Amino acid sequence: LNVLKIEQMINIDDIKILESGDKRLKQKCEEVTDFESDYTNIIEKMKELSIANGAYAIAAPQLGIAKRFILIMVAQEVKQIDLSDTVYSVSSYFNPKIIKMSGKQYFYEACISVGNVVGKVARPYYLEIEAQDINGKLFHKVAEGFEAIVLSHEIDHLDGIEFTDRAEKIY
């Protein structure tokens, strides 16, 4: 069986953010099993597009990649007002699964795939997930508050769910 590696299937220069209404955003993504592939360039492109669009997280299906991985960024150091000088801590999660959640919080969410729409969404306050790193090594993550919102929003993308599908109110 000849399986194409991710770097043979995707031209980094052709990656762009899909817009709401694109049927690929509604598909359930495949698990990542090809950890011998190099996802480094794709992760870097995801980071670039996130920063350029003022987002701190992005999921592979938002770029037309039907694989179960997401990227979450946290600003570590902000230099002046120019966001291009900001230093980010970048975490990638491959095959993330929510294994425990509790509590409830509301947040006004937006998404780079949806445009200028905001929606009031109920999310868990506390999350535990299992995921794999870029090399396929399993890890456990606990998140609360805003981090739990971001993780659950991005994991939803992997199942073809947009925040507008969950929003109680859209603005």
Structural description of this entry:
A hairpin with a 5-residue loop joins strand 6 and strand 7 (138-144). The chain is built from four helices and eight strands. By secondary structure, the protein is an alpha+beta fold. It has helices at 6-9, 40-52, 146-158, 163-166; strands spanning 57-59, 69-77, 87-102, 105-111, 115-123, 126-132, 138-144, 169-170.
Uncertain runs with pLDDT below 50, 5 residues or more? Answer: none
The oligomerization state is single chain
Number of strands: 8
Report the major sheet.
Answer: 5 strands, antiparallel
Shape: globular
> How much helical structure, as a percent, in the residues?
10-25%
Global structural class: alpha+beta
| Order of strands in the sheet with most strands | 1-2-3-6-7
How much strand content do the residues show? 35-45%
Element order: H for helix, E for strand: HHEEEEEEEHHE
**What is the count of DSSP helices, taking H or I runs of 4+ residues?**
4
Mean pLDDT: 89
Instruction: Indicate the radius of gyration in whole angstroms.
Output: 16 Å
Briefly characterize the structure.
By secondary structure, this protein is of the alpha+beta class.
Could you name the key traits of this structure?
alpha+beta; five-stranded antiparallel sheet; 8 strands; 171 residues
